Amino acid sequence: MNENTTVRDAVEQEYRWGFVTPIEQDTFSKGLSEEVVRMISAKKQEPDFMLEWRLAALRHWLKQTEPNWASVHHPPIDYQDMSYFSAPKKALKDLSEVDPELLRTYEKLGIPLAEREALAGVAVDAVFDSVSVATTFKDKLASLGIIFCSFSEALREHPELVRQYLGSVVPHTDNFFASLNSAVFSDGSFVYVPKGVRCPMELSTYFRINARSTGQFERTLIIADEGAHVSYLEGCTAPMRDENQLHAAVVELIALKDASIKYSTVQNWYPGDKQGRGGIYNFVTKRGECRGDNAHISWTQVETGSAITWKYPSCILRGDNSVGEFYSVAVTRNVQQADTGTKMIHIGKNTRSTVISKGISAGHGSNAYRGLIKVLPGADHARNYTQCDSLLMGAECAAHTFPYIEVRNPTAQVEHEASTGKIGEDQLFYLKSRGLSGEDALNMIVNGFCKEVFKNLPMEFAVEAQKLLSVSLEGAIG
Amino acid sequence: MSTPISFTHRFDADFARVAALPQPAWLSARRRQSYARFQHQGLPSACDEDWKYTSLAALERAPLAAQEMGEVRIPASGFDALTPWRVVFAAGRSLPAPPLDTLADVPAGVTLMPLAQALAESRPAAMQYFGSLSGEEAFAEFNSALWGDGLYLELAPNVTLTQPLYLQQVAGAGITTPLRHLLVLGENSQATLIQHSLSGDGAAHFSNSVNECVLGRAARLTHIEVQEQNPQALLFTRNLAQLGADSRYAHLALSAGGALTRNDLTLRLGGQGAECRLHGLTLGGGRSHTDQHIFVDHALPGGTSRQLYKSVLWERARCVFNGRVRVAPGATKTDARQANRNLLLSQDAEADSKPQLEIFADDVKCSHGSATGGLDDAQLFYLRARGLDQAEARALLVEAFAAEVLNGIDASLRPILASWLHAKLETHHAA
Questions:
Q1: Which chain A residues are closer than 8 Å to B350 by Cβ?
Q2: What is residue B247's three-state secondary structure?
């Protein structure tokens, strides 16, 4: 295959991970009511407090209206026209019982379950639709006292931990989508790292949406007890389909004194076809709280998929000397829309935060950074540095920057910088004159533009992210 | 006790009075329409994104009586010496002396008259542009319905207004009749306008003024606004300008004091190669709240805009900067920059900054920056090590910080503005 065909193949490449696995599904009929919530809870054999919490969330959700302030456009969502639960039918005890169809799905995704240990040293809690079907490395983690399991399992095995921390960062009343999630969340991951333990491996979950018109509502809860450290990876691909799918996840991180949590995401959900038909709506609430002194929370995200992304991973810096970080690359092409950013709430003394956001818009893509830096009166010597850069490719795209900066302490130092521009013709010319093809030159410039974010990703992810980015932008420039 | 009448319904008597003024039928129809719209939409609330940080509760609560056409003291002004062309509006009416037509040595090609007269005479430019920019926001409709007096300035092509036009707007106690000005600058003409809003005494007052400015091709306007408000004052201003091709618009806003000041500056770069330079400084003490709202719309290619907004805040003062730049589809080669710098001098001061870029074209250069903090200890130490005492060192640093907004101002105007700034800061340090 010569170079020209390679480039053409890449440019015309459809969504690589687009396929639907025919597998028997246990799906509720469409609609949302107290009855549905009770059925979900009963199906999962949850304790009573969980059902009460879900019902409270539902009652609150019914009073709320859908937010419309984001710089995105989509047809109205009919929340009664989707099904709120879907699980593989068979109950599974171990890997040998896993449907071979499902295993083949993971193979296509490049995560062979059987060989993972040797392959990457990554423990994967594989989420196939809504119920976790397999968890590995458990013994290794359990010997250190680390709990890494599906949310349902955590509710069965460690209800006291769930009860103590669930909703303590994102309450069920937080916002429209968080309330919806609290009412109907199906499953997700639960991590607890005990005092003084450093998790020896990267924990990872692959989310995969597989059932037609089933909104997926994941709930992730990660707790790092005093002095603990954990790094968590979230990555996702989804099969191709032609109906919009709503995804409203909630992620809560809690870092106690001297603890640190690193949360990395590579998001590559189906963005819809060239006209944007059938892409995923990704409306996610992610928030971490540095509850103790010297705690540290770091968010890194690479967003290349979804028709619409609405996501603001945030940090509440409550403990003195705590640190929050947000590193983001968001790519929108064709007609994708992304409204993303962060909130850094400085409450404790000497709290520090860094925000690096890189937006790339190509085609008719629209990319908005929306962020809040809030320094409360008690946050003496708080420090924030924010940098948002946007790269524009094509006359039809859009890039917006909407920072909110509220400072109520004179000893705080808060800086925000943003720039927007296109790739310089001179830069492209320079690289081309040294023998690089147009595509390679573009890749090199874009990768350089995103370097500050990529270097914060764990190694495996960084490689994947770079590949993803070059595939995303192929054909973006003439 | 009866509940106070809501703000939107306090003006029926005033409206009846202005509607009965001798004026063309279309104008009174337009007033009626605006008044209906104002009452219909009511005052904006904190749910409105443009009013997120500014509460109008103070306005609703304020015990403001309708304006009596009593005596208003006209304070002496340092700007008097600058120019022979001075027009004074006291409590919303132009003072009889000196009448506009007696301004000495106004060059040929300059039309200067009350706006009402220009509309009554159906001057083509006045008819074309009056109300073309003001918009439908609540305070704009309020002004369009109730304005009483104002200025019409028209410059024929290639005419230069050789001296600045000094406009003094003194508010008395209570609700001042809104002012409305219209400036139409013909091709290649030039003018400098100094607009000085101040409180006549220490009584609470509500003032509202709207300026519409239209700049023809290659026209140049320097507009300096100085606002000195007493601690009870409520001031709402709107500046709207449309910039023709290759025109230049420079705006400097110096805002000091006031309980609540809201300045809206909306520019449309509606011609290729138009340029604007917008500088603002807010000096806030006590419980003053100042909201600077800027919207620059790059509608056509090749436009350049520069914004520099600074604030110095002490005691419980609060300043809001909301600067929005929009680059329309196709407005390539746009070069836009925004900067906001806030200096907090006390534990209770607050700065809220919202610089926004909305970009719908690719071949553009846009950037913004915002920084908020206190005085730098290292700089203070440096000065103190050279023999300045703490107070002197602080004063020097604050003044240096503030004076940056005077950069780029014409050399003939700079000294008077610098001394105004110095005096303002000195009263603060003395206090």
A1: 406-408
A2: coil
Query: How far, in Å, CA of A149 to CA of A92, rounded?
Result: 15
Which residues 6+ apart lie within 8 Å of B97 measured at CB?
Answer: none
Mention every residue, 6+ apart, whose C-beta is less than 8 A from residue B266: B133, B135, B238, B239, B240, B241, B294, B295, B297
How do the domains of chain A map onto residue ranges?
A: 3-473
Does residue B47 belong to any structural domain of this protein?
yes
Q: Do B365 and A396 touch (CB under 8 A)?
A: no
ipTM confidence score = 0.84
User: What is the domain range of residue B155?
Assistant: 7-375
Contact B359 A400 (CB under 8 A): yes
Question: For the segment A236-272, what is each residue's pLDDT rounded down to a tens digit?
Answer: 544 444 455 788 899 999 999 999 999 998 887 777 7
Place of tokens 């004076």: B403
* Residues in Cβ contact with B271 at an 8 Å cutoff, skipping those fewer than 6 apart: B217, B243, B244, B245, B246, B247, B300
A71 C-beta neighbours (distance < 10 Å), count? 17
In DSSP terms, B359 is beta-bridged to A399, B327
The H-or-E segment that residue B416 falls in is helix B414-430
Structure tokens at A316: 């509440």
pTM: 0.86
Query: How many structural domains comprise chain B?
Result: 1
Residue B417: inside a domain = no
Q: How far apart are CA B355 and CA B372, in angstroms?
A: 13
The Cα–Cα gap between A344 and A277 comes to 34
Task: Note whether B370 contacts A: Cβ–Cβ < 8 A.
Answer: yes
Are A70 and A53 a contacting pair, CB within 8 Å?
A: no
